[in-house]
Amino acid sequence: MRILIVEDEKPLLEQLSARLKQEGYAVDSATDGEEGLYLATEFPFDAAIVDLGLPKLSGIELISRARAGGKTFPILILTARGRWQEKVEGLEAGADDYLVKPFQMEELLARLRALVRRAAGWTQSHISCGPITLHTTTQAVTVAGRAVELTAYEYKVLEYLMLHTGQVVSKTDLTEHLYEQDFDRDSNVIEVFVGRLRRKLDPENQYNPIETLRGRGYRLTLERTPP
Amino acid sequence: MKFSLTARLLLAGTIVLTAFLGLTGLTLDRAFSDYAEKSLQERIQAQTVGLVAAAVLDDNGILHMPKTLPEARYDTLNSGLYAQITSNDGTQLWQSPSMGRQDIPLPRNIAPSGRHFQRIKYAGGELYSFSLGITFDLSEAIHEGYTFTVAENMAAYNEQITSFRDSLWGWLGGVALLLLAVQGLVLHWSLAPMRQVAEDLAAIESGRRQHLEGRYPREMLGLTDNINALLASQREHLDRHRHTLSDLAHSLKTPLAVLRGELDKSPPPEELPAIIGEQVLRMSEIVDYQLQRAATSGRLPLSAPLSVATAARKITASLNKVYADKRVLCQLHVTDNANFRGEEGDLLEVLGNLLDNAYKWCAQRVTVDAALDQDQGLRLSVEDDGPGITPQKADAVLQRGVRGDASNPGHGIGLAIVQDIVRVYKGTLTIEKSPTLGGAKIALFLPHP
């Protein structure tokens, strides 16, 4: 999952970015509205965290311009004031959720996970495709009720594939959503993750959950289980 | 710089007055001139007729004038009254002795029964003449007739007109000056309350007074009452800000003291991070709460009524996004005339906090009811189908800053903020059990000002 953070307070930006990276997110950051809007229009993000009081271009303006430009990824706004007028303005401009500063990091992570999941059309906190179930709040994975241990990156690859089940996901898509802007994009790494995922999820070769489409990418073959 | 009111009124008054008196003067002048000319005409016409009557035609058909003329002035040289009789075949028959040797171009050859008035300018002045065409037999042929002309010097007439004009414009001018002076006095008297207000405002500015106390005319009450309301609301604001500031300072001291105490312990207690976390949360809530209180605008004078329905829709649209996973069914029963007389931020704050709580606690359903209560004020209630609030908890919730349930942060502070805003608007807030949904029902009454 690739996340954009636009926040002008450097210490907070660093805290947020460090914590999100630790959680396995790819993070790009901007310290003013204009830079934020540039990143938001140029790169494929899965979600954005936008502070409302930004220099150069206000958070509300950034959000409405990004939405006007056809960007649909979920946006979480951070506000220092917490007056409803401001929250309503932000949500009306196109944000999806808000958090009032100061907030607890766990709260932010939970909201972010919920937003990404909801944006992919899942309304519950667990995602199920065939026998595989992802618990987004605890990041636990079960296959037919059996718990599977995954590393953070493996989890992110699986989560991305499951949120886009049935669709072809190219290696570029995966690298772009898993790594930030200036990361060395070695597609072999993705192949390694997918290979390991296959062994862990389907050690007996029962389901063959991840299909390789030569030259195009991967596809999760399992159907989404309705909640 | 705009013209002052006095200047505007004086200017307009002067223009209207001048135009009116000017037109009146012109009309009178014209009427008098017409009248004077008419009477002059009548006079010389009568004199001409007298002259005709005096003329005698002898048996040979020759016209004679008697020795004694009908008017003595015909005999006096340069008397200003002149007469001439000409025969229409070109011969001059008679001239009044008053003409002497003057060469006056009096009209000739007027057809029988012809009448002709003429102004004549010549070396000796201006004359007004009347000529009458006459025949003594019944012939109408022009060469057989006579022309009788009488001319009178216009000096007297002109003098009459001039003297009339002098007195007319003199009077009108006098009246105009008098009226202008009266107008000035009337203006001064009428605008006195305005000057009074300006003085009173200056007194307020310099701190000698609290509000406009004088008795003002009815037309100005709207203004002065609103200024008083504005001043009162400003003072109220200032008071509230002072209280908020001191409350903020005082309430922050407790958590700070706790932290200080823990830090002074040696060695530092193991649960220090937890204590710091707890106190930081408490301080941030205090700051939030006091900030909201300071941000409450209260009822500003002259604020337009706001639609509750619009604000409620804004809030529910926002909350439907935020609580998308919960799929809350929120019903609005808000009448079209339900409006809030105050600041939009306050209304959004009230609805936002009430609905946020309702969305947070409800199982599935939330309803909002709002209607005007017989023009007395706005009744607004928010209900949910959650666990509800017990009376004991309700008391605690309504105490400032006390949270209803520590496990769900924010519940208490939201209601406390709402209660605070309601208090600023001199309204009431009650916490009940929802009769229809079974959960909490928060009911507000906000009276109209």
Structure description:
The complex is a heterodimer of chains A (about 230) and B (about 450). Chain A is of the alpha/beta class and about 230 residues long. Chain A folds into 2 domains: about 1-120, Response regulator (Rossmann fold, 3-Layer(aba) Sandwich); about 125-220, Orthogonal Bundle (Arc Repressor Mutant, subunit A). Chain A contains 8 helices and 12 strands. In chain A, strands 2-1-3-4-5 form a 5-stranded parallel β-sheet, sandwiched between helices. In chain A, strands 6-7-8-9 form a 4-stranded antiparallel β-sheet, covered by helices on one side. In chain A, helix 2 (about 35-40) runs parallel beside helix 3 and helix 6 packs across helix 8. The radius of gyration of chain A is 18 Å and the shape is elongated. Chain B is α+β, with helices and mostly antiparallel strands. Chain B has 3 domains: about 5-160, 2-Layer Sandwich (Beta-Lactamase); about 220-295; about 305-445, Heat Shock Protein 90 (2-Layer Sandwich), CATH 3.30.565.10. Chain B is built from 9 helices and 14 strands. In chain B, strand 3 (about 80-85) and strand 4 (about 90-95) form a beta hairpin. The longest helix of chain B has about 50 residues, at about 5-55. The radius of gyration of chain B is 51 Å and the shape is rod-shaped. The model of chain B is unreliable at about 400-410 (pLDDT under 50). The interface of A and B includes residues 81, 83, 88, 100 and 114 of A.
Task: Please sum up the structure shown.
Helix content of chain A is 41%, strand content 22%. Chain A is built from eight helices and twelve strands.
Q: What's the SSE blueprint?
A:
The complex is a heterodimer of chains A (227) and B (449).
Chain A: E1 2-6, H1 10-22, E2 26-30, H2 33-42, E3 47-51, H3 59-68, E4 75-79, H4 84-93, E5 97-100, H5 105-119, E6 126-129, E7 132-135, E8 140-143, E9 146-148, H6 152-163, E10 168-169, H7 171-178, H8 187-201, E11 210-213, E12 217-220
Parallel strand pairs in A: 1-2, 1-3, 3-4, 4-5
Antiparallel strand pairs in A: 6-7, 7-8, 8-9, 10-12, 11-12
Helix pairs in contact in A: 2-3, 6-8
Chain B: H1 5-54, E1 56-57, E2 63-64, E3 81-87, E4 92-95, E5 115-122, E6 125-134, E7 146-153, H2 155-190, H3 192-205, H4 218-264, H5 272-295, E8 305-307, H6 308-322, E9 329-334, E10 339-341, H7 344-361, E11 365-373, E12 377-384, H8 391-398, H9 411-424, E13 428-433, E14 440-447
Parallel strand pairs in B: 9-11
Antiparallel strand pairs in B: 1-2, 3-4, 3-7, 5-6, 6-7, 8-10, 11-12, 12-14, 13-14
Helix pairs in contact in B: 1-2, 4-5, 5-9, 6-7, 7-9
